[in-house]
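Researcher: First entry.
Model:
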Amino acid sequence: MANSLADQLLKAGLVDEKKVKQVHKEKKKKQKQQFKSKEAVVDESKVAAQKAMEEKQRKSRELNQEKETEMQSRAIAAQIKQLIKNHAIKREGDVAYNFVDAGKVKKIYVDTKLQGDLENGRLAIVKQGADYEVLPAVIADKIAQRDATCVLLNNKQSQASEEDDPYADYPIPDDLMW
């Protein structure tokens, strides 16, 4: 029983030693090839797992970036809302003041003092949702730094335009209404 099949065939004279050694070599080669192919399969699976992990991390970073951007935009919207709430000027009056919003002419009613301040650039009109509010121009500038689309009207008076104004000698009549 201790004798292998190769030994038994040698004793019987059916094969010679050269043939037995050749069969052993082939058997060892097959075993080595199988072992190497297993390593290659293992390496390929490791590489695939690593690529999947990197892809997952990249997607996670992108998702975190999107969440951070959304949180920043929400924070800016909250700041704008707070500025408008704290600095809105109560407007009552019967004088219609026209301004442009998204290519359409809109109208709010103010008193004559607010109308003068709006025309001179001391006050500005901002949009909050569907409502329009009148704010000091300084606050409107702060809002414009955060989101310029909220500020609809801010008549800034530039000093350079006053110096180069060819119509400076011709005053505008007080009773002229637009």
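Researcher: Second entry.
Model:
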Amino acid sequence: MTEAPALLELTGVSKRFGRITVADNLSLSFRAAEMVGIVGPNGAGKSTLFAMIAGDVTPDAGELRFDGRSVIRLDPAARCRMGIARTYQVPRPFENMTVFENLLVAAFRGGQVPRQSGFALAANLLEETGLSQDANRPAGRLGLLQRKRLELARGLATQPRVLLLDEVAGGLTDPEVAQLVAIVDQVRRRGVAVVWVEHVVHALTSAVSRLICLAGGRLIAEGTPDDVLANPEVKEVYLGADYGAEADWGKGVGD
């Protein structure tokens, strides 16, 4: 069976900040309806990778294509309208707006959704992400789990084709993580490509079909979660050379 073409593709992407290399000739691709996890130690280049995909940071070299079109010169707003959405490790809602108003802004401005459709979309997302009871609450008054849910819902309100998730499981309990994983999997089932950076490794291994490990801006390993986590180089760069073969990757290492 022929493999589906890449929806999002990076080719030879490099980026330096002064003497620090944060992306070293990276070539990665992601297909529709695929959930891919990205792990790596602090400073591996994960956040910069997301920033380059979303348009917040311009690569020094390389190409970035979305649905066959170069987006390297497009700003973040244009990329969002095309279907590239991202969340942030520290949620960034409009704190003085209600949860529902936050979703409307994302739908109208980020997704260019027509007014009537935008209200319906926001209402559906409140239900899907478990925020219905908080619809009229100011976003600044939400607890951590609900803020994470809102960050996810705001990304979905832009009607993305690629969703970049940044540390959505951090700080949550195991049951709360399981709830978010279930929501994200439903998103993938609708055909959205999900690229998920996470230090809570067991959240990724329970959800993704492919895992990527970065270190020092380089691609260290790529494959099934089991294969990548068993890779000796991954263990060394991620957790240190003395990390034992029997260590438990499910404890949220690297937080």
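Model: Note on the second entry: The chain has two domains: 1-83+160-242, 92-159.
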